[in-house]
């Protein structure tokens, strides 16, 4: 290790000691804003709703406080903050201030930071408010050290503050249509060591032809499960026509009276992100299994429930749906059911697929549409994002991996994931931490998009160290 690198390590450690309580406080400030997209409340300058905009303003305000030149873009869609360099060419970081809904199953306040045994819990501490704050502090240190040396950074360092990542990423689509694209960007919104590719993302929904909740032989009066399409639900409920003493509870299903001749069923599963379904248990699938096993449905309702069982069962590889596929870059396709809703007498079940290059979205649509037709249902595609991949041998990727390996002492390689980040929207970009999937965490720490979402303070500190080295390495490249 050179004296220069050793000196930089010492300065980073001293900086973390100096600012860490401020870092945690700034994360708490952002987490306390329930910045879930609400387009029903959109207003001029607030296209994703007032609370989402409030978080955007707070993120930009933090950047300004840390010495960056911050700007909210026209229309309030997105913002950025700069450290000017000798060149207008940009190296960029991009994080987001919007979050998914809190959902069910929390044991702590989702919209505050609970600090426990070295971990932070709260909606957004991992995805993506904690990484945003850590990234901003890393940029601030790089800028401070350049000033102390009396030097100008070779490239302009831009920090993009997104506000619509969890739904459509239309904020970044608009930005790239109206602003110059960075020479290279990375998004602290994933796993270490580095994400060089992301599976395609495919969202769609099935809708029953049969009416639920009506008179006659219909048994299902209400049914509801999940919070967002891109997460495995931890809870699902149904109200059915049955006698109070007819049904037995199980380890996974609660049974309670819901009025004369009505029973409420509550299914408890294990939630998680749609891109990482291993180890999860879909509560909708548990509920559907119970309904079918106890004949709590009409013949027409049964047909759609059988389709739901294919979507929400314990398998996640798409085999039950006829879309199983895998390639050597991304591995296997995943498919999960995210939400179920009974509205207007029709039951609607969403599906989230993360697909490799060995199958196309057109092929998935063809197969699932045929499946729907065979089960008295309609099928509609809601959103498609094609797979993304950057050469892991590129100079930029290697510069980031070198930073990661220096801080962690590991010898690592770039990986691909099923999740979708802003990186897929750029020509040259990747997703880069801060989560370490090898870190052992207590059972009470939840995943991103799940209840009790959490990350260790040690992980965030390590990420800050890595990001300072990563930016430093990128500034030394010929871009």
Q: Order of strands side by side in the largest beta sheet? A: 14-15-13-11-19-20-10-21
SS-derived structural category: alpha+beta
Query: How many strands appear in the DSSP assignment?
Result: 26
Outline, from the CA principal axes?
Answer: elongated
Give unreliable regions as ranges: none
Mean pLDDT: 95
Work out the helicity level: 25-40%
- Beta strand %: 25-35%
Largest sheet: 8 strands, antiparallel
Q: What is the terminal-to-terminal distance?
A: 25 Å
Rg is 24 Å
Number of helices: 9
Q: Quick gist of this model?
A:
By secondary structure, the protein is α+β, with helices and mostly antiparallel strands. It has helices at 3-31, 50-65, 129-149, 170-178, 283-293, 299-312, 361-373, 395-408, 457-475; strands spanning 69-72, 79-83, 85-96, 114-116, 119-121, 153-162, 184-187, 190-191, 195-198, 200-208, 220-225, 231-232, 235-241, 253-257, 262-268, 272-273, 326-327, 331-332, 334-343, 346-355, 377-385, 388-389, 415-417, 429-431, 434-435, 454-456.
């Amino acid at each position: 290790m050179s004296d220069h690198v050793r000196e930089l390590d010492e300065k980073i450690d001293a900086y973390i000691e100096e600012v860490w309580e401020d870092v945690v406080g700034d994360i708490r400030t952002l987490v306390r804003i329930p910045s879930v997209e609400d387009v029903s409340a959109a207003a001029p300058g607030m296209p994703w709703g007032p609370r989402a905009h409030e978080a955007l303003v707070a993120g930009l305000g933090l950047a300004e406080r840390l010495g960056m030149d911050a700007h909210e873009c026209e229309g309030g869609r997105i913002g950025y903050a700069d450290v000017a360099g000798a060149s207008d060419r940009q190296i960029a970081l991009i994080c987001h201030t919007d979050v998914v809904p809190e959902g069910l199953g929390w044991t702590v306040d989702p919209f505050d930071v609970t600090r426990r045994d070295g971990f932070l819990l709260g909606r957004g501490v991992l995805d993506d408010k904690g990484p945003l704050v850590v990234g901003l502090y890393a940029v601030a240190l790089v800028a401070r050290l350049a000033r102390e040396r009396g030097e100008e950074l070779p490239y302009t360092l831009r920090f993009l503050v997104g506000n619509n990542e969890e739904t459509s990423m239309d904020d970044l689509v608009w930005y790239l249509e109206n602003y110059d694209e960075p020479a290279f960007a990375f998004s602290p919104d994933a796993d270490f060591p580095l994400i060089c590719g992301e599976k395609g993302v495919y969202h769609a929904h099935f809708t029953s032809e049969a009416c639920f909740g009506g008179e006659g032989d219909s048994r299902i009066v209400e049914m509801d499960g999940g919070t967002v399409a891109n997460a495995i639900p931890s809870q699902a409920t149904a109200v059915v026509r049955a006698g109070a003493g007819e049904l037995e509870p199980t380890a996974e299903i609660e049974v309670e009276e819901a009025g004369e001749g009505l029973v409420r069923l509550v299914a408890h599963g294990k939630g998680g992100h749609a891109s990482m379904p291993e180890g999860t248990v879909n509560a909708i699938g548990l509920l559907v299994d119970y309904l079918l096993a106890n004949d709590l449905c009409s013949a027409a309702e049964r047909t759609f429930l059988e389709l739901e069982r294919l979507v929400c069962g314990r398998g996640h590889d798409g085999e039950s749906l006829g879309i199983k596929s895998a390639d050597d870059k991304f591995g296997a396709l995943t498919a999960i059911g995210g939400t179920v809703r009974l509205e207007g007498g029709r039951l609607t079940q969403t599906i989230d697929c993360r697909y490799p290059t060995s199958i196309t979205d057109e092929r998935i649509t063809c197969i699932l549409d045929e499946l729907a037709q065979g089960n008295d249902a309609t099928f509609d595609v809601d959103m498609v994002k094609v797979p993304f991949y950057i050469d892991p041998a590129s100079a930029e990727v290697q510069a980031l991996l070198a930073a990661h390996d220096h801080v962690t002492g590991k010898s690592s390689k770039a990986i691909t994931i099923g999740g979708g980040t802003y990186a897929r929207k750029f020509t040259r970009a990747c997703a880069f931490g801060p989560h370490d999937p090898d870190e052992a965490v207590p059972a009470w720490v939840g995943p991103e998009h799940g209840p009790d979402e959490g990350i260790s303070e040690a992980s965030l500190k390590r990420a800050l160290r890595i990001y300072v080295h990563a930016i430093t390495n990128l500034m030394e490249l010929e871009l």
